[in-house]
Every structure is written in structure tokens, then in C-alpha cells.
Input
Amino acid sequence: MSIGFERVELAGDKVRLRPIRAGDAGEVYRLVTDEAILSRLAWDGPAGEDGMAETYQRWQEDIVVIRSGE
Output
């Protein structure tokens, strides 16, 4: 039985990696709108925190559709 990546979490002394969640949008928005980060991305950044949350939600919905085979 495959559990999928939505339940995978990798944790170490300095970092914890897990799938994104819509609730992460606020913190991610603050990080990616920092010029030190944004200047290294091939992206203009999100339009706002709400836009980041909508994108994350859409990604989560897309994963469900892909898994269902639609």
C-alpha cells in the first residue's frame, strides 16, 4: 500500500521537509517577497498572501485529480 507524499516528513537537526499546505502561505509569502530571496528566483513573486494560499490550494487539488486518474 502506497501512502503517497502527503504523509512524508523528513526531519533533521536544522530542517524539516514536508509537503506544502495552504496554511503555509503566509510564512512563504513573507520569505519569497524578501528581496534577497526574490532576486534569485525566476519569478516575480506572488501577487499577495491570498494569491499564495490560492496557489497552494490549487496545487493540493491538482494532486488529488492526478491521483484519481482524471
Observations:
- Helices lie at 25-32, 35-38, 49-68.
- Strands lie at 10-11, 16-17.
- Residues 21-68 form one domain.
- The chain has three helices and two strands.
